[in-house]
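Q: Got a minute? One more chain.
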Amino acid sequence: MKEETAARLRRLLTDRTGKLSDVLEVERELSRVVTELEQLKGERRYYDQRIAVSTITLTLFEPGALLRPGSTAPIKEAFGQALHVLSTSLSWLVYLVTFLAPWLLIAGLGWWVVRLVRARRGAA
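A: Always. Here it is, folded:
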């Protein structure tokens, strides 16, 4: 767009011969347009150089790639083993209580009898 404007202004300078003030005004306008055009070209060169040395890093993830099918199997297995250990521990606790309860009852009765006998001897 600016190049077209500059070309028209140059044609005006070469084709028309008019008053000096008109010629000077066209030259000033041509100078302004050429300056803007050079500035735009410089900016474009700058950005072209920046783009040439730039780096783009792209990381792509496939949907669902973070958890593959079957990746939770070790976790399920660990929970299964933990529940097995817990149930085994509870069953041993039940066996222990069942085994010790009669013996504790017998020991408690024996202690009570011994205490009762000592209390009677001490009172007599």
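A: Residues 70 and 76 are 10 Å apart (CA to CA).
Q: Perfect, thanks.
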